[in-house]
Amino acid sequence: MFVIILVTRVTQHVNMLINTSFYLPGPKNIKVEGGTDVMLPCSLSTKENIESKLFDWRKVAQKDDGQKKVFLYDGGSHYNNGLDGQSEEFKGRVSHFQDELKHGNASIIIRNTKISDSGEYTCYFPCHRPPQIFYIELVLVVGEYFDERVKDVLSFKDWSLVSTLLSIFSYFMLVLYHNV
What is the C-alpha separation between 70 and 122, in angstroms, rounded? Predict the structure, then answer.
């Protein structure tokens, strides 16, 4: 009896996910020449005011590196006006568009890009319902040369499927956690 109820609830939740088109978009690829400034885009489709919200930009770990804290905004406080914790390599180089927050725009600018800035970035809204996460792949170009690790990452083209599966898995874990 419990199994039938669980399967029915899981089926209902999958149908809800499919019907509401809840999925995470694949990474947006941005190419930039080293030493220049780059904007990493991140906007909620609802265009709601996020001046009092929380969003967190991170650089995804590469090999033995841990996640890098790029930019954190929490209701007006951020790394550039007193919040601690920003990864050293991003200090003084990252800013946001304060006037665009009222339009749901959490985009950032990284100034004076370096080859070490190449990689995957996430823009995360943990308190949004449902939580939103966006992926950006930054590729630094030196002439026509791309770092081989970046080529390997870019060769995987179906990120939307991976994102959808991760979203569904996360949702089921949340549902199971609340039903235990």
Answer: 9
Which residue stretches of 20-99 are H helix?
none
State pTM to two decimals. Answer: 0.65
Half-sphere exposure for 135 (CA within 13 Å, toward CB): 17
- CATH fold for the domain made of 30-156: Immunoglobulin-like (2.60.40)
Q: Which of 123, 105, 109, 106 is nearest to 57 (CA)?
A: 123
Q: What is the pLDDT of residue 90?
A: 95
pLDDT tens sequence across 128-163: 888 899 999 999 987 654 445 444 444 444 455 555
Q: Which residues pair with 125 in a beta bridge?
A: 132
Q: Where are the domains of the chain?
A: 30-156
Question: Which DSSP state fits 145?
Answer: B
Specify whether the CB–CB gap between 124 and 50 falls below 8 A: no
